[in-house]
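Troubleshooting log. The previous structure file for this entry was overwritten by mistake, so regenerating from the original sequence record. Sequence copied from the archived sheet and checked twice against the printout by T.R.
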Amino acid sequence: MKRLFFTVVLISVLALTIGCANKNTSNQVQPISASELKKQLDSGIGNDTVIVDLREPILYNNGHIPGAVLMPLADFEKQYTQLDKNKRIILVCHTGPMGDASGQFLITKGYEQVLNLDGGMRSWDK
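Regenerated output below.
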């Protein structure tokens, strides 16, 4: 219950942060499809990209994108500074909206190469 409350509060803070930020239309969270991400993984995604899984550990442990690092949404605001601003960040959640909100948050913090898996892990599993 406590974790659910914290997650709701964090999402609210992220939404407020996004609403108050100056929108730069050339620097928005870009969607990436599951098929495109799979192609990139098959061809070697490289060290310039980090895939961040925002889901809870139990969901991550039940299956995740190869190479994805776990950074649950509940801890994201405390841990995002571990992400290199010079790398391309691909965010993954269960269905997509948390990844988009987290990506908008990163953009307000100066990250420029931010993508969100369109449809989240639900699209990956299909």
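The chain has one domain: 2-125. Archived copy saved in two places this time.
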